[in-house]
Amino acid sequence: MDALQERLTEFAAARDWQQYHVPKNLAAALSVEAGELLEIFQWLTPEQAAAVMDDAETAHRVRDEVADVMAYLLQFCTSVGVDPLAALAAKIERNELRFPAPKRRGERGERE
Amino acid sequence: MDALQERLTEFAAARDWQQYHVPKNLAAALSVEAGELLEIFQWLTPEQAAAVMDDAETAHRVRDEVADVMAYLLQFCTSVGVDPLAALAAKIERNELRFPAPKRRGERGERE
Amino acid sequence: MDALQERLTEFAAARDWQQYHVPKNLAAALSVEAGELLEIFQWLTPEQAAAVMDDAETAHRVRDEVADVMAYLLQFCTSVGVDPLAALAAKIERNELRFPAPKRRGERGERE
Amino acid sequence: MDALQERLTEFAAARDWQQYHVPKNLAAALSVEAGELLEIFQWLTPEQAAAVMDDAETAHRVRDEVADVMAYLLQFCTSVGVDPLAALAAKIERNELRFPAPKRRGERGERE
Lengths: 112, 112, 112, 112
What we know:
Chain A is mainly alpha-helical. The first copy, chain A, is built from five helices and no strands. The first copy, chain A, is flat, with a radius of gyration of 18 Å. The mean pLDDT of chain A is about 95. The interface between A and B is large, with 65 and 65 residues.
């Protein structure tokens, strides 16, 4: 992931795009791309959505939008100096305290 | 990243949350969390936005929202069987062909 | 609607908030609020989502988020000088040409 | 606005699209369209964003996305039986209590 993050930085620098890649713009772009991923699913039933990778063209579109979300997330993290994996690990630890797992599996958990 | 992706899967399984973690819901949740990250920046000038990590409380909030975006992106990828880093590497290669870097640096690139 | 649009303008002016209510910020805020509305639905099945107004507290939350989306949409329109109802009427006319209705009802339309 | 709301309902009915126009899908579509509006602004400076209507093509795109956001907001409201203007009026009243205007204008308000 570090290598890809660096490649994204070089890609932007080679095109003089760092001027645009400031935190506020990157947070907006991340949100826009997450919307484009959601667009693929907006009219689908849960069943159709679960089978979305069966169609080669849609599967390509899903991978493409995942890549865009990841790209802007990593570039946002570069711009504010946040390590996304360290942030995620810390969050999982907080969530394990906040939402203790039930003793016995099978108790149907209600999603907060 | 693989280890965190697995931990997220176990976290959801221990709480019987897999029933909610279907592709359409996870794409919606990813978009919602990207909106929460953007919310931090919505009223800031570009200058204020660039200094967002100087305030300890806001910096914590940024890391927290980055973690949520990453968590739902990874869980979405698990649900559709997409490798996010492979998808990103493939996209960077396509973009290098689509937006060739100018020969000489310093030509001000216009962001597409 | 004009009266509410004016009231929003006065509300912002009385608090010296016009400085924040520029087009880019209002477009971001609109997107953030649309995300908050979606958040209510993200883990619901289509059936649960269709019954969302049966619970008084959730119904209040839905109305509250609808109001926020409408407020930022109207304020955005004020900031760029767009008449939202005229824009919508023009779009419906374009869509009637773009997606002609089938001759006979009952042919199951596929949502674009 | 009522007339447009009805026209949207007839438009969807004539194409057998009501099956797709359930609350969860419409909330997702609203969020996706708000993202498309934001996309126009994502790389612009505040100054460029303020002049966005000077270019005829971009102005058309802004009006088009405003229409889409309004269309899905109204259709969402139809699907859950919410009156968007009544919801907005009630919210403005709540906000007038929540954020009292300063006695004297000119005290620079900080945007919450």
